[in-house]
Amino acid sequence: MMDNQDLRLELKAIDTSSLVDKVEMRLIEVFIYKELKPGDAIPKETELATVMGVSRTVIRESLNRLKTMGLIETKKHRGTIIKSPDLSAVLGKSLIPRILDNQTLMDVFEMRLALEIGMADFIFARKTDSDISELEKIVEIEPDHSDNILFDVDHELRFHGKLYQMAGNNTLEEFQNLLLPAFQHVYNIGLIKVKGKRKRYKSHKDLVTILKKGTPDEFREGMRRHLENHFARILASHRTQAE
Fold first, then answer.
1. How many structural domains are present in the chain?
2. What is the per-residue pLDDT across 70-88, written as a single tens digit (0 to 9) for each?
3. 95 and 78, same structural domain?
4. What pTM was estimated for this model as a whole?
5. What's 167's domain CATH number?
């Protein structure tokens, strides 16, 4: 016959994390189904606990997760309401270069390259004479770069930050500020160790000239050429790992 001590050894604490996960996902599904918009109120903890048949502790933890995600917030005299998430703020909490693993760092590195080529048409379409004048002032104080210069964070922040601003997309502009530290960190830790064959690339000054006198297609190609050595090293690194 099993005594109480043996019984306690056989029993294990119930993992409630899956329950919190289910409540969290169910709440999001309901928000979507009910087509709730920023500013709409949601029921109180006690009501949610009763309707969903779970404890207030589970509800509270689920709501805290949604707050961390930026999906809800608590307002004085209004209770908990739906909000539009600040995507850059949410991403900024987890995009910490020194904590990310190498594969994620490389993914972020590649993502930034793809973004800058992809937004070229928006930059060209929305540029103004004032933007061009500002870019010209920026490149005036930059040193002449040889083809083996890969990355200077100060110049990149200044020049590419202006390009993101010209693209007219606030989320992209904020996203760029998060990506650049990770971009630099890839080089600092020597993650890309293999040097690809250097190719002639377009400088910041070349890009400004294209913006003034060229076409959208020429600017997109110019941006691709500007980032050429970054692409070359990534692809060379992949080939080395595969061998």
1. 2
2. 899 999 888 999 998 877 7
3. no
4. 0.62
5. 1.20.120.530
